[in-house]
Amino acid sequence: MKHFQLLFIFLISSVILFAQEDSFFFEDDFSSNEEVPSSFISFDSGGSVGGFTDYYNEVWSSNLFLNLDFTAQTSVVDLVSNIDVKINNLDNFSNFPLQNNQYNSSFYVDSLFARFYHKMFDLEVGLLKPIWGNADGIHAVDVLNPIDYSNLFGTSYLESKIAQQMVKLNIPIARSSLLEVAYLPTFKGDYIPLSGKWAPLYIKNMENTIREMAYAQAVAQAAQQDPTLSYEQLVQAVSPSVEAQLKSFDYTIHFEESEYFVDSQIGARFTTTLSSMDLGLTYYYGFLKQPTIDPQDIIATSSLNLVYNRVQTIGFDVAAQVGSFNLKGEVGYNLTEDFEGNDPSINNNSLKYILGFDINLPINNMNLLIQGIGNTIINSSEIGMLDSEYSSDDEYTTITLMGRVSDTYLNDTLSGEITGSFNVLDQDFMVKPKVSYSITDNSKCYVEYLLLEGNEDTTFGQYRDNDTFKIGVEINF
Fold first, then answer.
1. What's the average model confidence in pLDDT over 29-37?
2. Helix (H, G, I), strand (E, B), or coil: what is residue 410?
3. How many domains does the chain have?
4. Opening angle at CA 121, ends 116 and 126, nearest 5
5. Which residues does residue 52 pair with via DSSP β-bridges, in sequence order?
6. Are 337 and 309 in contact (CB under 8 A)?
7. What mean pLDDT do residues 149-176 have?
């Protein structure tokens, strides 16, 4: 895999070097009143530095971060990069030497790509994370990048996206339309923490899930051999063999690794403006970003292998202004290889839809955002106990209401907002109020609180012990 990563970096470098050559291919692409040397390069840089302290589970923890943005531009090519450095869990920062403290640091390239300009198109090559769709903070048609769930409610949507190796072609059509075509030579799923406070419930309960699957399969086989036995008798009959198998089971979670070009992905998006409406059509052929399990493989190998299903996603999104309301909507249909819905190793087809609006209220500078998000699993009646999507309460539709109200005061130096989400069927919710104050034009401090409530088997309720209070400061340069 390292060889292909080096090849990808080489492609970026080649685009930059090739663009500097005096070639007839570029001579007439751009016109200007001033003669600019073909070798002229301009540089731009910026970033932010800061830190925050959060209080969680009766413990204070300090964190530092450095974000660097760098852009090099010529008349035909840009090189754009974003680099993040983070130091987390500085619980005893004042105790030196630092290396004796319990902390961890990370350095990673958030994005790095070259953008080549031509009069008919522009081409982007590198580590990219474009956003497709017009909803706010959540999408049904943004299908190219996986999500980092290690800091589930602590970052913005863009920050949570993981940049992917990508070649992306952007073709303007007429004056108000754009065709985007993206090719990803490999695949990476969502980052799911396997331990810690943000590990999801299904990961924590994986041992119980395997036990239920093992018994369900053994009981089904025993019932075929002797249909006269009751369920309790079947469980008693298969219990010795199932328990013996579970004792030798390897509960270490293994994620399916992707292969370059074999597990490639492609996506296309067409956007246009008609009258006062912005319309978008999306097609994607790749993989579901969330893994699933194959019950037959798990029982046969006595190991926990998570796999990713192939999927085709067809999406549509619209944005329009009606009076004072900015309307927005998205719908995405995920078409897997399980058309009938009865294959426990493949996720069923599903439909995700978002409909909402935002409006500036006649109260100071207040803005209100409301969105409804729905997810429906198709052919749910065919889902059995061995299926990873199985729900004991037979609920295969989720409806979530998401809202945000924000305002500014003191000549926009003081801002406040309250963000929240509420699951209509499960009655669990998340609320996060935040207040920020601009110390100068380039610096601010803020305070926020995260509240999560609900039953432990719900989306937000599974994290109900993760309420966090945070104080931070950020300086832009």
1. 42
2. coil
3. 1
4. 40
5. 63, 472
6. yes
7. 93
Query: For residues 119 and 113, what is the distance between their CA atoms, to the nearest angstrom?
Result: 20
Q: Does residue 448 form part of some domain?
A: yes
* Cα–Cα distance list, 114 to 4, 74, 80, 123 (Å): 17, 11, 6, 8
pLDDT-wise least confident of 9-13, 130-134, 281-285, 351-355: 9-13
Phi and psi (nearest 5°) for 74?
-125, -175
Give the 3-state secondary structure percentages of the chain, helix then strand then coil, rounded to 5: 15, 45, 35
Q: At what angle do helices 231-247 and 206-225 cross, to 10 degrees?
A: 130
Nearest of 476, 452, 444, 470 to residue 62 by alpha carbon: 470
Strand (E) or helix (H) holding 303? strand 303-307
Q: What pLDDT, on a 0 to 100 scale, did the predictor assign at position 8?
A: 53
Is 443 inside any structural domain?
Answer: yes
Q: Residue 105's pLDDT is what?
A: 65
Please tell me whether the overall predicted TM-score, pTM, comes out greater than 0.70 for this model: yes
Strands (E), 336-413: 350-360, 367-377, 397-409
- What's the pLDDT score for residue 90? 63
Bridge-based pairing state of the strands 303-307 and 250-255:
parallel
Max CA-CA distance within the chain? 91
The boundaries of the domain holding residue 471 are: 410-477
In a domain, 302, yes or no: no
Q: Where is 112: in which H helix or E strand?
A: strand 104-117
Provide the token pair at 176. Answer: 């108000």
**Residue at 429 is within a domain:** yes
Q: Is the N-terminal amide bond of 433 cis, ω within 30° of 0? A: no
Span between the terminal Cα atoms of the chain, in Å? 36
The Cα 222–Cα 280 span in angstroms is: 52
Q: One-letter amino acid identity for 106?
A: S
User: Do residues 435 and 414 make contact, with C-beta atoms less than 8 angstroms apart?
Assistant: yes
Tell me: pLDDT of 299 over 80. no
Residues 396, 350: Cα–Cα separation, whole Å: 10
Would you call 360 helix, strand, or coil by DSSP? Answer: strand
Of the CA atoms within 13 Å of residue 214, those in its CB half-sphere come to: 25
Can you list the positions of beta strands (E) in 4-76?
Answer: 42-56, 59-73
CB 104 within 8 A of CB 80: no
Residue 45, exposed/middle/buried by CB under 10 A (0-12, 13-18, 19+)?
A: exposed
